[in-house]
Amino acid sequence: MKNTGIVKEVSKNKITLSMYKESACSHCNKCSDSNKITNDYTIYTEENINIGDIVTFEMEDSQVLKAATIVYIIPVISIFLGYFLGSYLGFSEGKCIIFSLGALVITFGIIFLYDKIVVKNKMEKNIRIISIEKGE
Predict the structure, then answer these.
(1) Residue 23 above 60 pLDDT?
(2) Which one of 17, 60, 96, 109 is least enclosed by Cβ atoms within 10 Å?
(3) How many CB atoms lie within 10 A of CB 132?
(4) Closest Cα partner for 61 from 11, 117, 1, 121?
(5) Cβ distance 55 to 129 under 8 Å?
(6) Is 91 helix (H, G, I), strand (E, B) or coil?
(7) Residue 53 has what DSSP assignment?
(8) According to the model, what pLDDT value does residue 62 have?
(9) How high is the pLDDT of residue 106?
(10) Helices 93-114 and 74-88: crossing angle, nearest 10°?
């Protein structure tokens, strides 16, 4: 998966990018440039990059697919597992629903911690810079 961003900060071999939205509306001139920026993202590089440069980088598709599975599929599975576990334990339907929502909250907490501790470090180091356009 390819993305583009503008360099906001340079620190030794780390750069912070403000990523551009990758959609049809990102090329429209109806809104300000600040609405075309999504998140800040930090990556490691040995390239000579300065603040204001526009960087195109690529993440492995397998990592993107793994992240999408974790974020979109696992919470749905946890809802069902929570409901069926509550049902197996003999709870009423209302309590099973509350149990499944509790499982969802716990799952999001685990995903949040997994993202902050494990994924962020792996993703930052596995990104490959494709091109650099020098800024003004």
Answers:
(1) no
(2) 109
(3) 17
(4) 1
(5) yes
(6) coil
(7) -
(8) 78
(9) 96
(10) 140
